[in-house]
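Below is a filled-in request sheet from our internal design queue. Each sheet records the structural input a requester submitted and the sequence that came back. We keep these sheets so that new team members can see what a complete request looks like end to end.

REQUESTER: design group, bay 2
PRIORITY: normal
MODE: inverse folding
CHAIN LENGTH: 306
BACKBONE (tokenized):
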């Protein structure tokens, strides 16, 4: 189990993380989400003791990471997959790590096979593609057969087969009762992998909840409406907070109000509806809604005035 308690990190007069508290429990994949600059990497480094918090503390299995006598067997971490000596082979890199903890050579062979690197185990890492480097980083994280895994963007550089592989791997590890904490910018992948979410913005906690509850409470969704009087219905529904986009002639996609209100409004004004279909918001839509005011570098829409 991972626990962050009131973590705060300042660099000079800039506060990157502020009073951040959450718990990552075993048995489920927990996604760690946030816009660029939200403080995710800094938080992960504090969890592992690589950055000292200005205030607060973090524990892994009830104690700080640095106090574990054999940390590789407690926590498997992937923060920067390319931080490997380029002249080493994958096999020698893992053997060196294993030697520091008395991990047998058979385990090295196991993780090489598990990550699909057996055939390239004796090639120098400098010749590895980005995806192969990610697999090596994951192999290193799994080397000590740890109860806790902390992975920063593990699917970065992987091809579709690799993405599916890591998704199934993470879910199977969680099913074994391990603690799995993974950050990603791929909302579609998190929707398929994670059961729980910790979301931060500008260094503060925005949500700590299950994916199901997050979509229920934060995802307004879109309602598809088909009507021969689309213009009239748009005029009636246009209010602050309601977004309406037109599709094919007579088709509207409406966000910011529910199907009940749309149907009632149409009926009260005699507007016929051929279709009124509410859809659940995607994780990406719900995430964007929640973090709209927490984006550090918002882009200017094309065509907007400078």
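RETURNED SEQUENCE:
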């Amino acid at each position: 189990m991972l626990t962050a308690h009131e973590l705060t990190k300042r660099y000079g007069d800039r506060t990157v993380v502020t009073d951040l508290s959450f718990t990552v429990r075993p048995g489920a994949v927990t996604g760690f989400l946030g816009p660029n600059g939200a403080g995710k990497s800094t938080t992960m480094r504090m969890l592992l003791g690589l950055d000292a918090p200005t205030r607060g503390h973090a524990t892994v299995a009830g104690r700080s990471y640095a106090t574990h006598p054999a940390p590789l067997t407690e926590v498997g971490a992937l923060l920067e997959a390319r931080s490997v000596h380029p002249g080493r082979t994958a096999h020698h890199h893992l053997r060196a790590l294993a030697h520091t903890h008395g991990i047998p050579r058979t385990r090295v062979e196991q993780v090489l096979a598990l990550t699909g690197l057996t055939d390239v185990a004796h090639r120098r890492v400098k010749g590895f593609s980005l995806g192969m480097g990610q697999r090596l980083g994951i192999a290193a994280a799994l080397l000590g057969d740890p109860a806790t895994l902390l992975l920063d963007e593990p699917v970065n550089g992987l091809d579709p087969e690799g993405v599916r592989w890591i998704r199934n791997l993470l879910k199977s590890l969680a099913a074994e009762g391990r603690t799995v904490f993974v950050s990603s910018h791929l909302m579609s992948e998190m929707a398929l992998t994670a059961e729980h979410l910790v979301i931060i913005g500008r260094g503060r906690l925005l949500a700590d909840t299950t994916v199901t509850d997050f979509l229920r409470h934060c995802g307004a969704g879109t309602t598809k409406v088909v009507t021969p009087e689309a213009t009239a219905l748009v005029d009636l529904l246009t209010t602050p907070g309601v977004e309406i986009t037109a599709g094919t002639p007579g088709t509207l996609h409406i966000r910011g109000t529910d199907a009940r209100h749309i149907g009632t409004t149409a009926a009260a004004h005699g507007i016929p509806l051929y279709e009124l279909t509410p859809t659940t918001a995607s994780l990406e839509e719900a995430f964007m809604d929640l973090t709209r005011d927490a984006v550090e570098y918002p882009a200017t829409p094309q065509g907007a005035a400078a």
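SHEET NOTES:
- The longest strand covers residues 14-24.
- The chain has a mean pLDDT of 91.
FILED BY: M.R.
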